[in-house]
Amino acid sequence: MIDVRAASPDFAGVPGGTTGLLCKDYKGKVADTVVFKVDTGLLAELRSRERQAVCASAR
């Protein structure tokens, strides 16, 4: 998911778009305004996996 977003031309011109950590949303009455924001769900999943890896290596 991260690699796909990072390589997407939709995210190329957006600051931070090449990290793959942004998601695309639409705002406005008719959803005509594009908004890019940090994908907090993805970051939470990455943190969870990191915690599991640290706990597993501590055993």
Describe, in plain words, how this protein is organized in 3D.
- The structure is a single chain.
- The chain has a two-stranded antiparallel sheet with strand order 1-2.
- With 59 residues, it is of the alpha+beta class.
- The protein has one domain (2-58).
- The protein is built from 3 helices and 2 strands.
- The model has no long low-confidence stretch (mean pLDDT 93).
Gyration radius from CA atoms, angstroms? 15 Å
The computed structural class is alpha+beta
Instruction: Find the count of extended strands (DSSP E, 2+ residues).
Output: 2
Per DSSP, the total helix count is: 3
Gross morphology is elongated
Which H/E pattern describes the elements?
HHEEH
Helix content: 40-55%
Low-confidence stretches: none
Mean pLDDT reading: 93
Domain module tally: 1
Largest sheet: 2 strands, antiparallel
Q: Give the N-to-C terminal Cα separation.
A: 30 Å
Sequence of strands across the biggest β-sheet: 1-2
Q: Beta fraction of the residues? A: 15-25%
Blueprint of the fold:
Blueprint: H1 2-7, H2 9-12, E1 22-27, E2 33-38, H3 40-58
Antiparallel strand pairs: 1-2
Task: Offer a concise description of the structure.
The chain is α+β, with helices and mostly antiparallel strands.
Short descriptors:
59 residues; alpha+beta; two-stranded antiparallel ribbon
